[in-house]
Specification:
Blueprint lengths: L2 H21 L8 H4 L9 E8 L5 E7 L4 E6 L7 H11 L17 H4 L6 E7 L3 E6 L2
Antiparallel strand pairs: 1-2, 1-4, 2-3, 4-5
Length: about 140
């Protein structure tokens, strides 16, 4: 191979490297905070509503008395099991997304994602905001 052929091959390789770097940028780094599905902490929660398809909704609501905070179930109206509620609240803070679908794309349509009529909907209420998670199927 002559030096001219080597120079041409090196130039083509350099152009290919530049094109590869320009067309395939490094994806942005997503922090753990940005991946969280809910921005409500356990301390902020005042009510959780769980609506299952075809059943009456269940509400778990925070209350206060002389002893401290407690959780009350509705429509039953009796106190909730404190350990079970604390486990659920702890798990809520760990919900995070690993990937996602752009809502404007066709494959995100409710009929395709089965969220047109979700099996159950969980709504988390804080004093100043609420967040809803839909579980399809």
């Amino acid at each position: 191979m002559s030096w001219k052929t080597t120079a041409v091959m090196a130039a083509i390789l350099a152009v290919l490297v530049v094109v590869y770097v320009a067309w395939d940028p490094v994806p942005p780094v997503v922090t753990e905070e940005e991946r969280k599905l809910l921005d409500i902490t356990a301390q902020d929660l005042v009510r959780i509503e769980i609506a299952r398809k075809g059943e009456s909704p269940l509400t778990i609501e925070r209350g206060k008395d002389a002893v401290g905070d407690f959780w009350r179930l509705s429509p039953a109206g009796h106190p909730a099991e404190p350990g079970a509620v604390q486990k659920m609240i702890h798990g809520i803070g760990r919900f995070s997304r690993t990937t996602g679908i752009d809502p404007s794309r066709a494959e995100a349509a409710p009929a395709i994602t089965a969220l047109e009529a979700p099996r159950f909907v969980v709504t988390f209420h804080a004093a100043d905001r609420k967040r809803t998670l839909k579980f399809g199927g």
